């Protein structure tokens, strides 16, 4: 179950109730604060938990680089670019265009690009546009990496996860999120190698990490930290 809670400092907070939880956890997703709370948690306990977490959450929010969009902006993506344009042909609609490796997202004229609502709509438009390209660009690259390391999944799929960028099933199917398209090639490769290592070790054991490190030429820790601190060009 999900519901909203209005906080004086953080604004509208998304609250997700989870069975089996004992403590309240919190994370920023773009400019929206998400709380995971035990089922049945009284409102006063939610408020008390949020107040305890407030200094840390405030600090994290201040450290977050803000996502901004402008007409004419070009967003560098995996093996392609997206340019934001303005259009007045179709009111209240975003239009997709394609010219080789340059993609265009045409936004309605007069749209408030940097309101919270506007940024989320543009983010969604970018995700839909790049999902169409991911099969053409991402999956052949994943096949190439698999051949290089000498393993092969049963198949590849494109997913939509924002926090879970990759997933390997027990049936050896690897799902790669469309959001990998916003990453540079070295981080895309790292995530693919991570999932390919799960074909051998369906866990996160020392043996698993040793294999990821082998697949990434000894760069697992460096790439892990780079991904952790990556400045996404979209609202998360």
Commentary on this structure:
- With 236 residues, this protein is α/β, with parallel strands linked by helices.
- It has three domains: 2-63, no CATH class; 74-133, no CATH class; 135-228, Metalloproteases ("zincins"), catalytic domain (Zincin-like), CATH 3.30.2010.
- The chain is 37% helix and 27% strand.
- It has helices at 43-63, 116-149, 185-197, 206-215, 220-228; strands at 2-7, 11-18, 25-29, 32-38, 74-77, 80-87, 95-99, 102-108, 155-159, 166-168, 173-177.
- The strands form three sheets. Strands 1-2-4-3 form a four-stranded mixed β-sheet, covered by helices on one side. It has a four-stranded mixed β-sheet with strand order 5-6-8-7, covered by helices on one side. The protein has a three-stranded mixed β-sheet with strand order 9-11-10, covered by helices on one side.
- Strand 5 (74-77) and strand 6 form a beta hairpin.
- Helix 2 (116-149) crosses helix 3 (185-197) and helix 3 (185-197) packs across helix 4.
- The two termini are 20 Å apart.
